[in-house]
Amino acid sequence: MDFSAIRKVRDVEVAGQRVLMRVDFNVPLKNGVITDDTRIRAALPTIKDVLARGGRLVLMSHLGRPKDKPEPAYSLEPVAARLAEILDVGEVTLTDSCVGDGARRVVLDLRDGQVAMLENVRFHAGETKNDEKFSRELASLGEIYVNDAFGTAHRAHASTHGVTRFLHTKAAGQLLEKEVEALGRLLGKVERPYVAVLGGAKVSDKISIIENLMSRVDVLVIGGAMANTFVKAAGGSVGKSLVEDDRLPLARDLMARAEERKVKILLPKDAVVADGPDATETAIVASNAVPAGRMSLDIGPASIAEFRDILSRAGTVFWNGPMGMFEKKPFAEGTLSVAKAIAGSAAFSVVGGGDSVAAVTEAKLEHGFDHVSTGGGASLEFLEGKILPGIEALLP
Ligand code: ADP
Ligand code: MG
Questions:
Q1: pTM greater than the 0.70 cutoff
Q2: What SS3 class is residue 34?
Q3: Domain boundaries 3-175, CATH class
Q4: Which ligand sits closest to the CA of 223?
Q5: Is 375 in the pocket of ligand 1 (CB under 6 A)?
């Protein structure tokens, strides 16, 4: 897909126009309070640009997974309030519903440089069904459509896909552009050696990405619970570690294919083991000799040293998936060390995936990365080589 064929919002005359913009404001909430507003801040460059140029901005987003009807717990109200605070405007009006007369009145009242927000688009079944009538109703609220919601670009929903059929002018926002540029670089000609670090819970979640990256990278570093399946497939004992026995043949096949392609697969040499995730007593053992009854929950110090060495010499690094059960302190070291090694390397570096990005931001290492992807599933699908429907829909 040729992204350069897609218009960029900065090239669109927005003054006096109603700009209907899909953003990803699906922020984490705890008792109605936003615990992390990264997603709101990520859309600020485009929001500020449109407002500064006199656009009449109508924002729309989903939040959580309401069941096709209004549920107060999933109202975008706290998001509208936080956005008003960040933009330092008195209030960001939130419509009662994302479609209908109320919404129409609010958007018609907008003056140049003002912003309003539509209530959660997933309060209507038409959103996830990509329903034509619902898409048409959404489209009627703006003259220009902008998509800056990279995190939902892998979904063909009304607000990311259907709506584009009913608006003449459509464009990509700055966040979307930045994501496509950075992730696109990982699929093109890169500085070598190219190292992909993959971890997380399951091989089965990451098969397509392993397969697609296999034809591009020089080294595939595997950690996390995913490594257990490879270690066992290679004949090791993994005790009662999390392992996918039904994927052992797949792991063997991937290792054989890597060898054919001369791609080096690097598995952890050692592991931090314990009786279970809540245990505080840990031991270091060889990753292929985990005693029966014990669980491998992080990569060990020898693995950290080896991974660090590879990363320090890399030209390009993509990282997805924690090296261990990093949510628990005794098993966080591997993930933190890898994050630090990548942040400190001179390589062009990208991290993607909800949990991996959380680990990076928690450690305040995001500035060490060239790109921290805001899209969990979307960035992975992009790197699997898929064409994302929300991006494709922006083609003229
Ligand atoms: P991402 O969201 O970055 O794509 P995943 O969702 O694939 O990452 O994987 C993250 C999860 O994997 C975390 O909840 C983490 O606890 C778990 N995990 C990683 N290593 C292990 C392990 N050795 N044993 C059990 N769980 C693990
Ligand atoms: Mg995850």
A1: yes
A2: strand
A3: alpha beta
A4: 1
A5: no
